[in-house]
Amino acid sequence: MWVGGCLSISKKIFVEPLFLEWIRSNSRRTAVGLDLDLEALNWCLEKNISRVGADGYSRISLFHGNVLQPLEAKLVNFEPQELISNITLQEGKDGSETCALESTVQVGSTADDKCMKSLPLPPRDIVCAFNYSCCCLHKRAELVLYFKHVLDALSKKGGIFVMDLYGGTSSEHKLRLQRRFANFTYVWEQAEFDVVERKTRISLHFLLQKQQKKLRHAFSYSWRLWSLPEIKDCLEEAGFRSVHFWLREMPDTEEIRTTEGFGEGRDVKYEEVKSFQQQDAWNAYIVGVV
Ligand SMILES: C[S@@+](CC[C@H](N)C(=O)[O-])C[C@H]1O[C@@H](n2cnc3c(N)ncnc32)[C@H](O)[C@@H]1O
């Protein structure tokens, strides 16, 4: 029996733990990913085969396409045998063996004959779009259309859509935040904020300590920073029965310009709220129920 999957605007590092956990924690689960960026999808295929094994891998389908026309998205093809033969056992620091893919060749290509509309995908239980992906859509009509496609993909028996959003006074001006981890530093850079269009450019840079390498603009996005009521209105207009907000205050950006790791406040819990007073920074999960 299909248990369903998750359709997301998926990308590299961010979505990976969620995807893996979903697949690993139940052998009947399937996952579906959709992204405009073929390179990101290839990376996901290469990276995860060694972590979920052949069985888990067979339950993941990645599509290259636009969330505004999901049915036209093309299945990313790969040769599992070829991938599996590329897995090598590597010795971890603690002496344990971990699987790793040696090859970094492009493994995925898209097939014109296999698009989402021609494949029998089961209704999805959870659709998620994290790391503020919805801000990549700039027009209200696009957001509503995207939410309608999400609703179409969801199971009518309790399916949910989960997305995230950030905000606060610090999100509406130029800002540079740095986080230091053991072997790399990560920089979130926010360009000037245009209040007429509510647009900014977000760039993520990485500094790899060991390799003394800088990856400037590793990711760069032109974003429209939506407000919570705009998202709620669009979800309702698309047909979601109810919309729920889970929020938490984030550490003050003036105090944490340079933070070690996740910094203090990592354990602050999200709470479901009906109202929330403006803060320097907040983060929200928005849940749309079918
Ligand atoms: C900020 S990233 C977040 C990725 C992902 N949700 C995660 O948690 O890792 C936004 C992603 O949305 C993809 N994207 C933007 N517009 C899209 C569209 N119209 N259709 C499909 N993917 C899109 C980009 O290629 C990028 O991978």
Into which percentage range does the β-strand content fall?
A: 35-45%
Structural category is: alpha/beta
Distance between the termini: 22 Å
Q: How many strands?
A: 17
**Count of DSSP H/I helices:** 5
The biggest beta sheet reads: 10 strands, mixed
Strands in their spatial order, largest beta sheet:
7-4-3-2-1-8-9-17-14-16
**Approximately how much helix is present in the residues?**
10-25%
Bound molecules: S-adenosylmethionine
Q: What is the number of domains?
A: 2
Mean pLDDT: 83
Cα shape = globular
Spans where pLDDT lies below 50 across 5 or more residues = 1-14, 86-106
Radius of gyration: 20 Å
Order of helices and strands: EHEHEEHEEEEHEEEEEHEEEE
Descriptive key words:
single chain; 290 residues; alpha/beta; ten-stranded mixed beta sheet; five-stranded mixed beta sheet; disordered N terminus; binds S-adenosylmethionine
Outline the fold blueprint.
Layout: E1 6-9, H1 12-24, E2 31-35, H2 38-58, E3 60-64, E4 74-77, H3 80-85, E5 87-91, E6 97-101, E7 109-115, E8 126-129, H4 140-153, E9 160-167, E10 175-180, E11 184-190, E12 199-208, E13 213-224, H5 228-238, E14 242-249, E15 258-260, E16 271-273, E17 282-289
Parallel strand pairs: 1-2, 1-8, 2-3, 8-9, 10-15
Antiparallel strand pairs: 3-4, 4-7, 5-6, 9-17, 10-11, 11-12, 12-13, 14-16, 14-17
Helix pairs in contact: 1-2, 4-5
The structure holds S-adenosylmethionine.
Residues 8-11, 14-15, 34-37, 40, 66-68, 129-133, 136, 221 line the site of S-adenosylmethionine.
Protein name: S-adenosyl-L-methionine-dependent methyltransferase superfamily protein
InterPro entries: SAM-dependent_MTases_sf
